[in-house]
């Protein structure tokens, strides 16, 4: 018995240095902040929608194709890392990786998706960023609780790997320029085959509490058949507090072949057939004192019809309203109702089909 006890003591003593070493190697010498949220969405669509949990556009007006879903894939987590001075970094992920399924079939698994992964170096008024994060489009979003954030309905946004330089002239004026991977899908070679990055530039001006952001982009897509499609974009974002608890924000934009930015309803074409489109959105955020806040939003994506073939989408419009309730000072409960109308170009003319989208979300940030 004594020999057994002695053996256990000697074994534990031998493991203690290894355990201490393992703990020491797992401790970062930088400041690390862990954050995220748990989110569950319950959705009902009265007609057929493209995008499953997302709301892309109306695909069918048949009542038999209505859809009910419950999903927790909007859950996300991330880490902010900093040396407390000139170097910082971020990595953030969620579970909405539907288009790059490991099994090869879109949506066949709940893939872990990389949202952000970048580092920044600061030197005086300059900042260098390397990695994946937002395009330089204005970071103005509607108040929707749908994860697609009204893409294809006037809100331009997306993330991509890039090299970016920012110059902060003052607290009120900043400029940025970036060389960006010219396609938003890793498996899509039509952008990367151009052999050149997409170039983006941004200027941001603050006037009192209001903020204006002007952005431009230019790039080229190319097929193996040497067909070329130019990507062009001019995008103006605005954020204007009207009164205490009342803010108006949105975007106004025009361009062509805007697939990378969720514009042109995701349609790209080549040569003289390039898909030109204009659109934008406006969102009114109402936040009185208390636990409730509200959003009213309207957005439109309007490609030029003459460049599109029959059966193409020629307009996509979304109007929505939601109410947000802060429950127990920790969990936000949101109910949203949205109407989406998609217009199609047919050989016989144009046809509009619509959908009513209802979504209940519960989100616990940490």
Q: If you had to describe this structure to a student in words, what would you say it looks like?
A:
A hairpin with a 3-residue loop joins strand 17 (313-327) and strand 18. The model is unreliable at 15-22 (pLDDT under 50). Helix content is 8%, strand content 55%. The radius of gyration is 24 Å and the shape is globular. It has a single domain (29-365), classed as Beta Barrel (Porin). It has 366 residues and is mainly β. It is built from 2 helices and 19 strands. A 16-stranded antiparallel β-barrel has the order 1-5-6-7-8-9-10-11-12-13-14-15-16-17-18-19. The chain has helices at 2-25, 189-192, and strands at 31-45, 48-50, 57-60, 67-71, 76-82, 87-94, 113-123, 126-134, 159-168, 173-180, 198-207, 210-222, 228-243, 246-256, 276-286, 292-303, 313-327, 331-346, 349-365. The longest helix is centred in the first third of the chain and has 24 residues, at 2-25. It starts with a helix and ends with a strand.
| Global geometry | globular
The CATH architecture would be: Beta Barrel
Low-confidence stretches: 15-22
Count of strand segments: 19
The biggest sheet, with number of strands, parallel, antiparallel or mixed sense and barrel status, is: 16 strands, antiparallel, barrel
List keywords for this structure.
mainly beta; Porin
Please render the helix and strand layout as text.
Elements (H helix, E strand, L loop, with lengths): L1 H24 L5 E15 L2 E3 L6 E4 L6 E5 L4 E7 L4 E8 L18 E11 L2 E9 L24 E10 L4 E8 L8 H4 L5 E10 L2 E13 L5 E16 L2 E11 L19 E11 L5 E12 L9 E15 L3 E16 L2 E17 L1
Antiparallel strand pairs: 1-4, 1-5, 1-19, 2-3, 5-6, 6-7, 7-8, 8-9, 9-10, 10-11, 11-12, 12-13, 13-14, 14-15, 15-16, 16-17, 17-18, 18-19
